[in-house]
Write a structure and sequence with these properties.
Catalyzes the reversible epimerization of D-ribulose 5-phosphate to D-xylulose 5-phosphate. This protein is α/β, with parallel strands linked by helices. The chain is built from eight helices and eight strands. It binds 5-O-phosphono-D-xylulose (5SP) and fe (ii) ion.
Length: 227
């Protein structure tokens, strides 16, 4: 199998939320071989979002399965209480929601002290200006393109203008910060997202739910954005 070009400016992060969890290791190894750039782990607590998924123990078991970075998307009411546990389990980056962190600056400092990359996620209805003060400190912004909580939802096109606004903010104050998008990302939405300024693409159902399998799904998505 020919891997994707590792130097591609476009990064793809398969979300294991849509994987066949009865053979998770195999499913992660498959997307690694197909050229995925990182693995996206959706953590939900049934409080911040109406669904429950994974805890640090899953990250611990996943860590030796792949050489890819593990990014942990924390959709939980009390992210500060779990940062150490996810870092210790092997997370490479920790993403908290701007809507869920009361003392966001402190939370980001905490992540940095743990030696992990720090990201902030922003929901579709939250204005981009909420990122303004924290943006200089960030490694990554995760713009939600669905309401968080479930895989397999439809991309919300109303988020495109905000993504373009975040791209302008990043370019002016922190050009090294990555702009990642999450939710309903497939070969139809991805070209529109790239035009708006996104460079990292989380994809669950378009990869793991692809009828012809995760490798074909990933290839199709990468092909749609020239990555
Ligand atoms: O954070 C979330 C959902 O809350 C995502 O990471 C989903 O896992 C993306 O799944 P698809 O929309 O690509 O199926
Ligand atoms: Fe996510």
């Amino acid at each position: 199998m020919i891997p994707r070009n590792a130097d591609s400016a476009i990064k793809i992060a398969p979300s294991i939320l849509s994987a066949d969890l009865s053979r998770l290791a195999e499913q992660v190894k498959e997307v690694e071989a197909a050229g995925a750039d990182r693995i996206h782990v959706d953590v939900m607590d049934g409080c911040f979002v109406p669904n429950i998924t994974f805890g640090p123990v899953l990250v611990k078991w996943l860590r030796p399965v792949t050489r890819l970075p593990l990014e942990v998307h924390l959709m939980i009411a009390k992210p500060d209480d779990f940062l150490d546990a996810f870092a210790e389990a092997g997370a490479d980056s920790l993403i908290v929601h701007v809507e869920g962190a009361t003392h966001l600056n402190r939370t980001i400092q905490h992540i940095q002290k743990l030696g992990r990359k720090a990201g902030v996620a922003i929901n579709p209805a939250t204005p981009a200006v909420m990122l303004e003060e924290i943006l200089p400190e960030l490694d990554l912004v995760l713009a939600m393109t669905v309401n968080p909580g479930f895989g397999g939802q439809s991309f919300l096109p109303g988020t495109l203008a905000k993504i373009a606004a975040i791209r302008r903010m990043i370019d002016s104050v922190n050009p090294d910060c990555e702009l990642e998008v999450d939710g309903g990302v497939d070969q139809d939405s991805a070209p529109r997202l790239i035009a708006a300024g996104a460079r990292v693409f989380v994809a669950g159902s378009s990869i793991y739910g692809a009828p012809d399998g995760p490798t074909a799904g990933l290839r199709r998505l990468a092909g749609s954005v020239g990555g």
